[in-house]
Amino acid sequence: MSQIAEQSNRALELSAETYRQAQLCVHCGLCMPVCPTYLLEGLEPDSPRGRIHLMKGLADGRIEATETVRGHLDMCLDCRACETACPSGVVYHELIEETRAKLGDGGTGKRRTFGRWLVDFVCFRIMPYPWRLKLALAPARVLQKVGLWGIVSGLARRVLGEQIGKMQQMLPRKGGFWPTHGAERYEAEGPRKMTVGMMAGCVGSVMFGETNRKAIRLLQRMGCEVVVPREQVCCGAIHHHGGKVEKAKAFARHNVEVFENVDVVVSTIAGCGAMLKEYGHLLGEDEEWAERAERVGGMVMDVSELMATLEPEEPEYGVEMKATYHDACHLAHGQGVRSEPRALLGMVKGLEMVGLRESDTCCGAAGTYNLTQVETAKRLANRKIGNIEKTGCEVCITGNVGCAMQIQSEAEGMGKKIKVLHPVDVLYAAYFGEEVC
Ligand code: SF4
Ligand code: SF4
């Protein structure tokens, strides 16, 4: 028997707790209308219920991990909208993440294209390491400065394919050559309420360092001492969502050690925050680390969640703007944070917020999904941008860099005049009287 056949004939071994999640599903279908891929395709295997059925079938050894089955599972965004809708409390992400990790890369005999290999290389070997990312971006920044980025990236896209094209499309149009680290410790203004450890994020610290800087400044003003430990590493989300669990655990252990002496761990990036909050589960079977990971995971807050608990005074300045709000999946579904950013933005004088249809439906970013499932991600972005346009707003506010890059780049590709901001950008302008940017 060939290695491929042997592998596909074996039942997929899921942990007892994860298998129990599949058993919890009562097939009611209430999750289906909120599932982005079901909304697009209208097919049962591209719905949460269908995928749970497939995963249970794999675990029971009733079906094999064929290319078709993997295709339906790969198409899942891991956006967790189905968890919000599920009355039975199925923790779906544990099921899809363990299934992906156990299935691994092999088994179908399908060869990776060069484009896919390069995307994996960038996602797993470059993006989680800020200095490597800074070095990798340096040539692009030089080309941007001399005005040749459009030509060179267009050629690269034609030669290397759509996945590379997507990477170049998402690169923010502006950026320094060598983004600098700020200080490691920032004093609180007035009496210190707490010490906050900031998870700067790997992609976030390189491409959206300005948002972190503004968040630190706001937290200082609200009475927090902020530390940004240099030793911190990637939260592990990229590897975890890509099925590389052992590497994600190694990152988690390192960060637990780095952050365990602060009062609160804060993140401006929904994807990182959701991953950090999962550390207790991720290291739950590691006797040496489980307790510490659970404690640190319990200390994590999104920046808007933390600011809301600090009960800040109303901002002094007005921001004359009409904007809508997109709920990042890993903030709304992953962390249950919906009201806090809206409440904070509601304090800003002159800011008119307009409701967004399907505000908590994924925009297609979903970690590295927009690099691996380019077409589906694009369709979801188009749907999101269409809904933003219907609000009549030219500004969309969202608390996740992945969503910001996805919506901004796709809107620019469509020639739409939409600007994407983080809530922190707006709050900073309102508290410090600066231009929103
Ligand atoms: S995680 Fe998102 S894409 Fe995946 S099944 Fe659930 S709702 Fe659908
Ligand atoms: S809502 Fe929950 S119980 Fe109902 S089909 Fe979806 S996952 Fe299963």
Brief overview:
The protein is of the alpha/beta class and 437 residues long. It contains 25 helices and nine strands.
Would you kindly provide a written description of the structure presented here, covering whatever features stand out?
By secondary structure, this protein is of the alpha/beta class. It folds into 4 domains: 3-103, Fumarate Reductase Iron-sulfur Protein, Chain B, domain 2; 114-170, no CATH class; 185-308, Rossmann fold, CATH 3.40.50; 314-432, Rossmann fold (3-Layer(aba) Sandwich), CATH 3.40.50.10700. Helix content is 54%, strand content 8%. The protein is built from 25 helices and 9 strands. It has helices spanning 3-9, 16-24, 36-41, 48-59, 67-74, 81-85, 92-103, 114-126, 130-145, 149-160, 162-170, 202-207, 209-221, 237-241, 245-259, 270-277, 279-282, 290-298, 303-309, 329-335, 339-346, 369-372, 374-391, 401-413, 423-432; strands at residues 185-186, 194-199, 224-227, 264-267, 300-302, 321-325, 351-354, 395-397, 419-421. The longest helix has 18 residues, at 374-391. The chain is globular, with a radius of gyration of 22 Å. The structure holds iron/sulfur cluster (2 copies). One iron/sulfur cluster (SF4) binds at residues 25-31, 48-49, 52, 82, 85-86, 88, 90.
